[in-house]
Amino acid sequence: MIFDLETLSPNRRYHLMTQGLVPRPIAWILSHNDNGSLNLAPFSFFNAICSDPPLVMLSIGRKDGGEIKDSRRNILSKRDFVIQIPSRHHAAAVTASSASLEYEESELASLDLELSEFEGCDVPRIADAGIAMHCEFHDVHYLGPAEQAIVYARVRQFYVSDDILSEHNGRHTIDAAALDPLARLGGAQYAGLGELFSIARPS
Question: How many domains are contained in the chain?
Answer without folding.
Answer: 1
